[in-house]
Each structure stands twice: as C-alpha cells, then as structure tokens.
C-alpha cells in the first residue's frame, strides 16, 4: 500500500469537518491540533539529514532560537496552493514559486483597459469553474479559507446549479434540467417542461432499443467491476471499444462515445481510459442520487474565481506566513548528496539565482515538470522518466460579452453536437454582480463564458480545427456553433447585435510562422495505460515530492479536485518523511455503494480466474 493510499478512508474521513462540526472528531478542533503540541512535531526532521530540527509555529510565533523547516513549493496552481495550505497549517515555512499567476488554470483575471468610469475591467478566465457534487477535498479546503460574513468561508460562495440545457442541433428539441428538479428550485414552467419532455422523447427515439440496452449493460458491468478489473482491464481499454461504438448509430456515437469523453474530460474517445470515463460516469450518477456528495449535483461560484476563491485563499496563506514569489520560473533542480539542495529560478529579466530549502514539492504542470528531469535527477529516481509518456490536450476558455442577457439560455449549456465540444455558462445567472454597474464600459450586460474542449476537429464555418484558426476565427466559429444549436428551430437567441466583444484565453496564441496556435497551458488527460506512467506523491529522492493533476489520485482525473487531492497527498508524504506526529491531511475517496461489495468481490474472483464480469454477456 502506498503512502498516499494509507491516508484514504474507505468512503470519507471518519468525521470530516462538514459532518463532525467545529469540534471535529472526538471533540478536538482542527485549530487546537494545528496550534498545540501536536503541530510542534511537524518540524522534526529525519535523523541523519544534517538539517537543524525546528519547532512548528504556535499561536502565530516560533519557539525561541528554532527555525521552522523550510519547504519550496514549485508552482502556485491548485495543487501547489493546496500543499502550501496544509504544510503552513502544520508549522512549515513555505515559499511558493510561480512563473505566471497564482491559481493556475482555475484563476480568473481582468481584461486590461476595458473598465471605464470607475468600473472594474471585464472579467475573463482560463475556463469557467464547475464543481460536481462528488468533489470533497476542494470544499474542505474552501471551508478553511475565511471570508467576512461567510460562516463556512469560501465554501459559502458555491451555489447549486439550478438549470442545465443539453442542446442538440438539426432541429431537435433540447433537454432542460429546470429549477423544479434542483435543490431549492422554483415553480413549474410549462414551456420548459414541454421542451424537456419533447427532447427526452426524441433522444430515446433516436437510439435503437438494442443500443440503449447495450449502454445500460456496459454501465452495469462497470458499476459491478472490482478494483482489480478496473485497473488491470478497463485501464487499458479505450472507451470507444468498451461501449462498442464501432458500427453503431450516429446518435450513439455522439452521445455515448464522443460527448462523455470530449465534452466532459477533453480526451478523445478512441484513446480515453475506460477506467477514468467509467469512474466519472459512476460518480455523477451516485451524486445525482445524493450519495457521497458535499452538496448539490453541480455547483458554481457566485463571482469570478479570483474574487470568490483565489484572492481570499492567498490572503489567508500570507497570514499563515506563506511567501509568494510570482514571476519566478523554476528552471532546474540542483542535487547534492542524493537530495535536492536548491532550485534554480529565473525572473522575467533573465536574472538567475538558486533558492535553497529543506523540502521541495514539485507542483508544476506535467509538461513543465519534465524540464526539471535532468540526468542527475533521473539518476536518483529513474521512474520519473515515465512522465514523458503522459499526454496533454487543450481545453481553454473564451468569453463573449453581451449587450443584453439573452433569452433561451440557462445557467449552463452543453452544445452536444458542436464539433469543438463547447459548453458555456451565462454568468448573470450565477454571479452576484451587475455587469453594467460593476464591469467594463457600462454597455456590457452579461458574459457567456465558454470551455472549448476539442481543438482538432474541423468546425462548421471555416472547415478548420481550432488549432488552425486565428484567434478571431476561433471566436466567430464558436459563435456560429452555438447559433447552430440554439437557433436550429427558428428562434432567435443570439442575434449578432447582441455581441459587444470577446476575449480568448491568452494562453492560446497564434503563431504566424507555423500557421497554427500554440498553447501555454494544456491539460493532462487520462489515456489508456497512463496510470502506470503517473508518479506517486513520494519520490525516491528523500526530500522531493510530487503534486499536480497528473499525480496518482483516487479521483483519477485532471480536475481541481484531483489537483487538490495531490497537494494533500504530497503534504502527507512529506509529514511521513519528517516523521511528524502532526495530524495527517484528510483525503476523500469517491463514494462506492456498499450494496455492490458482494458483486465486486465475486468479480475479483472471476477476474483472477481470467473470466469476464458476470454481466458482461452482450
């Protein structure tokens, strides 16, 4: 059993903060543990390291004459901030080195120069933030970030998503999950109900009965598969093959194969790991039933991400003594005596220096972590070379700023048949903000924020993939693909005069020399067999730990939840290496229904015997 696995509970910590109340398990508060004698042990270092032992901070100070052990966190995204949070609360002196901006892919940022008359600049983001109900680690962190007026800190800035539209093109009715089906929903809207029922009937009718039965069977097979089969068999089988999409109808391929992979996890269905796609489908199904959730089926923030989450987080961490060095790119790990002694960093002016620490957490994206794997580093841990076999795809955001709030668009829209697998949220339906008063030039009434998940399939306007379109062509193509879905029944939803302006994630830039875009912030995706190439949080280098959405986690997907979980795993691995008696960081597992345990045990026996799952008969 690995270090990270030892700190998982079967379904959740015995008494997570949300369920045990402010006193936590056994009536001992988290704050008391962190500021009392137990936290003092967090400074105890491994014998024989040659490093001075220190004492953790207590009541905002340090023990006289002793310095807290130092930790350099390399990267200020979700995993780096999570690791810094947990280690700072346990008395370590943490410095975070970040090349670009704190918050990583989750951050929001202003469109500079767009605010006039005392208003803020228009808000933009790498991609809109979506929090499924099965996220447990992220909400736990949020509860521990104080916000004035919020009893549960940043967690109170999450709101339940009240409506989602699954939009089809070709004149087909959309499916709407309206407020009447959401927690605290409103009254019955007959027009919405009529369109939803019509859409459901059309979707069911579009799929032959045999294909519906096939998908139900495949889902049941996955639900009843043992962990051994999931890792040993389904990890190595593409989702396309698992659901037997070859030769099926166009709707089966669009809904079951393409949308569930490209639309939800930004990976192509013919290379996506069945283990990952199946686990996400299972998690959504169970959270829809209210099992293993922290809140509603899906949640969103009530303001731009930095306003609602990242800025309060950074303020809290600064208050815990965390230092942030932004604009510092980590170029190399400098090793000595079988350990990492320092890192070489370079600033925007090209000035290089070495930064030493006792412990190091590499929380950089996988494509950037690869650059640190020198021959000296790989000699200490050859397994890290497997990182080069991990795969990235693109999932980036585009914001359309609108003169009016459009009718016929809900809080969230999935454009199921769009070649670029577009999803969007209408921010006025979510944010506690008045756009004309708060942002821009006073003429922007709303923001339609998109995630574009497929950059390799030709579009409908220019016949080119997004990677081959200029930034302006990307915007025009996305607008056209949305209209193709929303206006296919003759209703005007997005008239062109509605559009005020647009903003594409600056991570995507046009390279005229190659006639294609380049992306500074790709996303690691779970392809078949990728688990074997992903590292544990603890490496063979005694004072180096890994965090990031590519590190092995229970959630097993490149998400905020996975990144947060990996930061927790790195903190726990570091505490183990130190030999600290401090409280370990709680880590939540995806919920597994105990009612299926018997079938899974039977499946484990059948898998070891080389036999298929009991239900794998279609």
TrEMBL record:
Q: Which InterPro entries does this entry report, sorted A to Z? A: Amino_oxidase, FAD/NAD-bd_sf, TAT_signal, Zeta_carotene_desat/Oxidored
Every copy of the Amine oxidase domain together lies at 78-575
Extract the Gene3D superfamilies matched here: FAD/NAD(P)-binding domain
- Chain segments carrying region Disordered: 1-29
Pfam families hit by this protein: Amino_oxidase (PF01593)
Q: Which PANTHER family match?
A: AMINE OXIDASE, PROTOPORPHYRINOGEN OXIDASE
Q: What is this protein called?
A: FAD-dependent oxidoreductase
